[in-house]
Amino acid sequence: MDLERNFYKWYKKVSFDVPQNQIDMRWQGIKQAEDIKEIDEIVGLIRIFLKLSCDADIKEWFIECFSNIDKGFDDKNEEELAVLAGATLAKLLQGEDGIFIAYSLQVLEPYYDFILKDLCILACDRIRELSIETNRVNSEQEAQVFLNSNWETEIAEEGQFSENAPETLISVIKKMEKNIRILDSKNNNLMNENKIAQEKIGILSWIVGEWSDLLEIPLSEIKDINGAVVLGVELENLVRSYPGPYAAEAFLSKMLNKCKKSVSEVSLTELIDEQEISIKEKIVEKYGGECESRNLPIIAALKASLTVDGKKEWLPAYKKAWKINPDSLKLSLIKWSMLIYQECLVSSY
């Protein structure tokens, strides 16, 4: 995608009748803003894009990227700032922190109105690109060990597991174990490939086992509304390198289908209040330290629910802090599971 060309289209959302030289100056400001380095600054940029309150110093820095070029820049125009922040994020998606930005956008998209819809598409494309890139490097290194480098596509198609998936999984696990032993005998340049191979072995063993590590019981004894949360967390626990498995949704769907059926879709309120306190505490202890500053709505809701005694008592403070109504948004369990998986990835970055 030609970002500069698309930016001109995006900027028209601010005003149809805008001088060309003004658009050119804004693009120059974006090129300055893309020098951003710190994760906290990226998080602030995301909040500006969503028109949420953010750190005053970060917002001032972002405004100066444009006011230093155009002295007439209106720093009170939240709509324009949102478009400029979104365009800056689009450029940053191609940088070293692109995967963090991509997952951050995905976990927030269900709750907020994105002024630039294309940004969600760009985020999905970036995750896909990085997944392909990782698998390409890995398969080239592993080609001497075994031929089944496309194992994910063999067991999952269009989000569903194939008929021969169980046999394929067991076969791949055995080959992976041999691969690990070979990689261990090589030099330190193969450490990353070793890490990826261990990730795949862990995920495949988890799928075959049909067991919840957090709840310490078989999936067949777990209600799917509880499984949606714990399985998303457990899958992230198995990730050893970004961007994680591209077939994550298929994996979670496979595991959720092994749980006891209770509901098809739930609100965020219902999802949070149905979880056991002990599970909430474990998740918050590991991932909740920066859930507010990293824009993680589900983990923040789990954390908020631990501060009150009864169900729904956490809602008033949460609604005020996040500008989200947990009662109004209903999603499928697989969607919630994917979202908390992605939130955990963002938290661990």
Task: Provide a descriptive summary of the structure in words.
Mean pLDDT is 89; it is low at 138-145. The two termini are 26 Å apart. A hairpin with a 2-residue loop joins strand 1 and strand 2 (160-161). Strands 1-2 form a two-stranded antiparallel ribbon. With 349 residues, it is mainly alpha-helical. The protein has 17 helices and six strands.
Question: Could you give a quick summary of the protein structure above?
Answer:
This protein is mainly alpha-helical. It is 62% helix and 4% strand.
Order of helices and strands: HHHHHHHHEEHHEEHHEHHHHEH
| Percentage of β-strand residues | under 5%
Total strands: the figure is 6
Helix/strand structural class: mainly alpha
Low-confidence stretches: 138-145
In which order are the strands of the major sheet placed?
Answer: 1-2
